[in-house]
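Could someone model phenylalanine with this protein?
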Amino acid sequence: MKESALGQISQVTEAAQLQDLRVKYLGKKGELTELLRGMGSLSPEERPVVGQLVNEVREALEAAFSGKQKAFEEAALFAKLSSQTIDVTLPGRPVPAGTMHPLSRIIEEIEDIFIGLGFEVAEGPEVELDHFNFEMLNLPKDHPARDMQDTFYVTEELLLRTQTSPVQARTMLKKEGKTPLKMICPGKVYRRDDDDATHSHQFTQIEGLVIDKKIGMSDLKGTLLTFARQMFGENQQIRLRPSFFPFTEPSVEVDLQCFNCGGHGCRVCKQTGWIEILGAGMVHPRVLEMAGYNPEEVSGFAFGMGVERIAMLKYAVEDIRHFYTNDVRFLRQFNRG
Ligand code: PHE
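Reply:
Sure, complex below.
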């Protein structure tokens, strides 16, 4: 029996067959088990002899079974490994990576320029109090200049900020009358405009504010000229035109010489040679006073520029809506590579 069992075990080719054989010999009703059971009918002299023999056979069979079992497992592992080989020399599949949004890039560039000039970067809430968006900027309720910016109101007192200028007031209050104060604030602003190629109900501004002793219009002009040259090239010219904002006096609008035509007049600048990029002025004494600064002792300038405007000029983008519709073919063009 031992010989025939060992012979069968060695010929088995599948794990399932091996299991069948194990049952056949060593199972509860297996041949070897039956032999052991039959030992009761043997004489006392025969019993140890037969017992030892049966044990020997069982050990031999068990060894054969587990040897074969191990061989099957190894074969299965080997088959798995060889079917799953990885060729590490193959080129990898490209992982599609996002690119930095052009507006974020422009904001970072502008921040870097002003940080280089000693400005700090501030932030303020997009859902703003009427108090900061208007009143602290010398625009009391019913002031006609409120109509300059059509506002999304949340409640009577709460609105979506129409400009980043409320951060001027917030920053001044935080500084508690201390000088120098030099900050810029990038952020989203909202106005009830109908969207078209040059208007968006939500767009981006960067506010700037400087307060110190003896700050004058020349500081404003020098700062903006330095900015324009770092942003658009060494020979860039700017032009200041008188304008009006309730929170600055005097107020100006600042134009960039059109770099498309060098100031000679073209489609981009509507034949004027100049392109408006921001509003600015000397901080109104009332605004200083309301925010805890003494206009007899200190003065300041402020400006607010449109980031989309600048991005459109720099990258020759013709429709502001491209920045918001997130067509990856548009966005990928700004990949730093
Ligand atoms: N807040 C003004 C606007 O949105 C721009 C501005 C900022 C003007 C600071 C003067 C000083 O039109």
